[in-house]
């Protein structure tokens, strides 16, 4: 074996070692891997390259995140306790979406809560001033989590406000992703630490045996002030999101300001992430509040990740598509979902539901565009309408069903977001918000993607796109 990394040992010894490696790894794969294709692939790699295959499987094939999460939960589970208890704001639902509400309740162990106000914010121009103002007015605590948190002009302003809050005695906790906010060097993390602000990097390590964690990212964007006011959605913290200032590579996005009982679920989600990363339990009224009525929106937080929350966002959107009667409209920056989502969207279109998918004409990651082009034909065949959104690149993650139910947050509609990333979405049963988001998406249906557009690609482009499609799970 030319690429075998086993040392030069007698033939019988090498054969025995290879047999032990292949047998041990194969048994582990058979007992732990639910996905048949993944199991067959890993066993095949280990059979062909026993030593190298075993190393690769130990690095990338074992879900240590889920094991760590279960270990932490078994030791102590400080969050999601109050949310499951009876509350005066807990709501049950009747009508078309009652099965969805029941399913998500069982799936997440979080109740559907009423009396919330949810404000839609567009781009950093609309969201950052409100977020910075909330940080300035904080009285007790600030919890913030962001996948990308740059030390640029706007990021620096956030850092200054957070440091000032810390100096005046506010309990500040900042969590940045170990890759998205800089893998080798995170200037934001370094600057916050110099200011004495408690800050952690999610699953970050330069050690080779911790390398599997590089593939598992915290993609959530959350800000909670005093346990009373929350912000969540798809917006990172970077100059590129200030679209009105015409940056070199502008990124348009949608974020949400929330008030009401839903904020407690949001705070518990970010507190769990902090506990997972920093092993510090956040407790008390300064982080978690009981709330007065703020509005009329029913809402619930849905988290997903490769831990104990595996596939929960995907299951929620699948059930919502199943219940659609008239219309499903989805806006996503990257569209390379798995076969289950593809099949459900196609079936909805075939039974007469108007299905619209809005994707950027050109995203900031070309390989994702290539894979999408190679993967989208079955939906066009089923009658799904695919719309291309003109620049600037739109990073919004929005889903509306029948102009009555909305699903918003950090999760893209790709396999990475649905299976590998730690994501957070919010389901909202509110016609007013759903209609506003639906109308917003309607104004972004700039041009329609057709079979003709796909057919006119050159053979070389088709080969490139097909090759990119093979990498869909990791793009």
TrEMBL record:
One Gene Ontology term from the biological process aspect of the record: cardiolipin biosynthetic process
Domain called PLD phosphodiesterase: residue spans: 214-241, 390-417
Domain of life where this protein originates: Bacteria
Keywords associated with the record: Cell membrane, Lipid biosynthesis, Lipid metabolism, Membrane, Phospholipid biosynthesis, Phospholipid metabolism, Repeat, Secreted, Transferase, Transmembrane, Transmembrane helix
UniProt membrane topology term: Multi-pass membrane protein
MF term (GO), any: cardiolipin synthase activity
GO CC field: extracellular region; plasma membrane
Keyword Transferase: yes
Keyword Hydrolase attributed: no
Record EC number: 2.7.8.-
Location of the protein in the cell: Cell membrane; Secreted
Residue ranges of the TM segments: 12-31, 37-60
NCBIfam families reported for this sequence: bac_cardiolipin (TIGR04265)
Function as written in the Swiss-Prot or TrEMBL entry: Could be a virulence factor.
Protein name: Cardiolipin synthase
Species in which this protein is naturally found: Acetobacter orientalis
């Amino acid at each position: 074996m030319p690429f075998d990394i086993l040392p030069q040992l007698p033939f019988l010894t090498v054969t025995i070692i290879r047999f032990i490696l292949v047998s041990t790894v194969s048994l582990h794969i058979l007992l732990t891997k639910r996905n048949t294709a993944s199991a067959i692939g890993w066993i095949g790699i280990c059979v062909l390259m026993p030593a190298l295959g075993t190393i690769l499987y130990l690095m990338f094939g074992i879900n240590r995140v889920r094991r760590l999460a279960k270990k932490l939960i078994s030791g102590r589970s400080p969050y999601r306790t109050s949310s499951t208890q009876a509350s005066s704001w807990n709501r049950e639902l009747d009508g078309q979406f009652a099965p969805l509400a029941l399913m998500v309740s069982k799936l997440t162990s979080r109740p559907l809560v009423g009396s919330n106000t949810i404000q839609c914010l567009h781009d950093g121009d609309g969201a950052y001033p409100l977020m910075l103002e909330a940080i300035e007015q904080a009285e007790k605590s600030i919890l913030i989590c962001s996948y990308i948190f740059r030390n640029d002009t706007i990021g620096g302003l956030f850092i200054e406000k957070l440091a000032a809050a810390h100096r005046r005695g506010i309990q500040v906790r900042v969590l940045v992703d170990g890759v998205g906010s800089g893998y080798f060097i995170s200037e934001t993390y370094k600057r916050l630490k110099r200011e004495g602000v408690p800050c952690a990097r999610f699953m970050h390590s330069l050690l080779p045996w911790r390398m599997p964690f590089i593939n598992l990212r915290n993609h959530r964007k959350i800000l909670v002030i005093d346990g009373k006011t929350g912000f969540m959605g798809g917006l990172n913290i970077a100059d590129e999101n200030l679209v009105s200032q015409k940056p070199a590579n502008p990124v348009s996005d949608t974020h949400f300001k929330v008030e009401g009982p839903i904020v407690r679920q949001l705070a518990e989600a970010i507190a769990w992430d902090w506990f997972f990363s920093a092993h510090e339990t956040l407790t008390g009224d300064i982080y978690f509040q009981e709330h007065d009525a703020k509005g009329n929106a029913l809402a619930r937080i849905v988290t997903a990740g490769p831990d104990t929350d595996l596939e929960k966002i995907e299951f929620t959107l699948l059930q919502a598509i199943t219940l659609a009667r008239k219309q499903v409209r989805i806006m996503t920056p990257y569209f390379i979902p798995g076969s289950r989502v593809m099949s459900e969207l196609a079936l909805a279109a075939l039974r007469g539901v108007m299905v619209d998918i809005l994707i950027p004409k050109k995203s900031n990651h070309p390989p994702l565009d290539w894979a999408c082009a190679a993967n989208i034909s079955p939906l066009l065949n089923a009658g799904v309408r695919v719309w291309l959104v003109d620049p600037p690149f739109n990073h919004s993650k929005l889903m509306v069903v029948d102009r009555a139910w909305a699903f918003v947050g950090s999760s893209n509609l790709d396999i990475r977001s649905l299976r590998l990333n730690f994501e957070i979405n919010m389901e909202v049963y509110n016609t007013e918000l759903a209609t506003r988001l639906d109308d917003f998406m309607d104004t972004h249906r700039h041009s329609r993607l057709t079979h003709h557009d796909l057919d006119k690609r050159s053979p070389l482009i088709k080969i490139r796109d097909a090759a990119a499609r093979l990498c869909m799970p990791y793009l």
